[in-house]
Amino acid sequence: MSAQLQLFESRESPERWTVRVSRRARRMSVRVYPGGRVEVVVPPGVSSTTVQRFVGSHSQWISRRVEDLSAVGLPDNAGPPTAIHVPAIGRTFKVEYEYTRSTSIRPQLFDGDVLRIFGPIHDEAAIASALRQWLSDLAYDELGVQLAAVSRQLGLGFSRIQVRRQRTRWGSCSATGTISLNVCLMFLEPAVVRYLFVHELCHTRHMNHSPRFWALVEHHEPEYRRLDRELLRGWQAVPGWMFE
Question: What's the structural domain count of the chain?
Fold first, then answer.
């Protein structure tokens, strides 16, 4: 269940704000998505006055996030990419397109850095979907190796890795030690990606953001405050075709 609500005076269009009632929600939370859309998730029975008060208390944070993300994930009308720059692994792939009678899009890597796209290349949505899957597979291999190396360096273990495409989180760590990484990390600089690894690995010791958690993060990454700010702005580096 969701509803539109004018939360507070803002320059943002009211259509970009939604309130979603979720039976699974234990508390109120707010998410800002690439493109600047804001969603407030509330448990059943919460009054509009309480929601207004909650949003008001987080208004400065929301405004900063909206500013950071307003230009992200919007279509650039430039068509499918001709090159994909992947700073996280220090590589750039040239993208070439070749029409075939195949009913599906098939990416194939040649000579290490030339990605050829075969199939019905007039279907831009199918191309974007195939590129996202290709990048996810690459991220699983490349980021998995990097995460394992940082894990050994810090002496903080994890059980397994999974790569997902999320709109609000760069990563997460479960109580069982599974670390989830956002495929969009591939578009960030190596130092920022490493900080995200440190952050999630520290959650294997502290499943919260307590002072002890941040002390452990700082122990392993003294520049974490600067890197965390860069991570929050990281959506600006993600190309529009990564979003549906």
Answer: 2
